[in-house]
Amino acid sequence: MSIIMEKDEAHRIIDRMPPNATWDDLMREIYVREALSAGWPTARQVDQGRKGSPREVRFTGMKVHWTDTAQGHLEAIYAYIAQDSSEYAKRIVDRLTRRSQQIAQFPYSGRRVPEYDADPIREVIEGSFRIIYYIKSDQIDVLAVIHGAMDVLGRSEQEDK
Question: Could you give the number of structural domains in the chain?
């Protein structure tokens, strides 16, 4: 497909999106189109293929494993937000863990983590959180879930100067 045809198709997709559509909605639409054209299973087939424990999510794509560290981060996020609203905390953690679906189907859809600049270490953004994961040959390990304002390497501002 030529660049002009790709741009035209992108404009058609955007024009069909509802006025209140978010960037995530657009990206999902693109992922779905790519998945269907590549012969990937539908969402219903993916949900039917879901197996494993809550710490291990398997779709028809790769297995996504949440490490103890990432689990601890989710628990801390929940505890902090639940001080004000347990319902909102539950929704946030649910949104964070649902990103396993995207990671499983499209491991390289996340950007490289700038602090490491290593191709298998990627991240996806969900709200104000960064979900950092490592792509292995047989599975994907979610390493951390941190607030976007945090420094991944744990350096202080004084160390950077």
Answer: 2
